[in-house]
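Input (structure):
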């Protein structure tokens, strides 16, 4: 199964074999967000956050693995993507408020809640978990950086050029959208402890010439006492589940099994 090309905004069609309920809810800035919800069989729900310029269908494979293991899922289009409202994209900076709204939707529907995020969605998932203690476990695949502070020390001239521009890009985005520059991922990560985190890193990254492992490994090192790490060097950004499907499904569902334990509350 190849991830769909989902230029956004776009219409999103519910697959005939995917037994989800269409939902809408109000996120930050009073934006209407669109998604799918399926109730759990094990009292645990996982929120799934897709990557940039995609929509919720990008994570259908991951959702199916979780459903087969008994978890409920809440998949929704990020603001300004898919069928969700929003005229601005702010590198995920405002999306933590949307995750908080999603938690309100799940209030009373699940005993424990986890979150899965890919790329920009992974960055949002980490920062959301830092601010929202009712998220009990975080699984991220190729999480992006949120601000210039998240980039590693440059290893070559090309990276020096890219990283030197990063603070300027942050200020430009903040000025253009009226959004304050948020806490970086590296600032957010220590506040997630002792809740578990799982990092997946592949061999390529759209911004880092040295590969996404160079970007993400420092995140892991900050929290390795309560985190797990998995490298898939032969895969491209977001392609780990295709390269090692059976292993990926096992690691994903085994990790979130912590949500079924009574002491996760």
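Output (sequence):
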């Amino acid at each position: 199964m190849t991830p769909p090309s989902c230029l956004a905004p776009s219409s999103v069609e519910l697959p005939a074999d995917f037994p989800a309920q269409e939902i809408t809810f109000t996120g930050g800035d009073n934006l209407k967000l669109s998604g799918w919800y399926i109730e759990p069989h094990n009292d645990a729900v996982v929120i799934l956050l897709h990557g940039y310029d995609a929509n919720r269908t990008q994570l259908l494979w991951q959702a199916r693995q979780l459903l087969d293991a008994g978890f409920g899922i809440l998949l929704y289009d990020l603001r300004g993507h898919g069928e969700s409202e929003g005229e601005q994209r702010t590198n995920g900076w405002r999306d933590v408020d949307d995750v908080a709204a999603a938690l309100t939707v799940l209030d009373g529907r699940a005993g424990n809640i986890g979150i899965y995020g890919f790329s920009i969605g992974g960055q949002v998932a980490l920062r959301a978990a830092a601010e929202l203690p009712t998220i009990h476990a975080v699984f991220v695949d190729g999480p992006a950086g949120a601000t210039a502070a998240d980039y590693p020390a440059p290893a070559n001239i090309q990276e020096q050029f890219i990283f030197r521009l990063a603070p300027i890009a942050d200020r430009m985005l903040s000025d253009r959208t009226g959004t304050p520059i948020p806490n970086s991922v590296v600032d957010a990560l220590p506040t997630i402890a002792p809740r578990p985190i799982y990092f997946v890193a592949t061999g390529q990254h759209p911004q880092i010439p040295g590969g996404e492992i160079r970007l993400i490994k420092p995140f892991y090192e900050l929290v390795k006492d309560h985190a797990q790490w998995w490298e898939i060097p032969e895969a491209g950004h977001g392609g780990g589940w295709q390269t090692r499907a059976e292993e990926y499904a096992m690691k994903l569902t085994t990790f979130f099994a912590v949500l079924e334990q009574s002491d996760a509350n």
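Notes: The radius of gyration is 17 Å. The longest helix spans residues 157-177.
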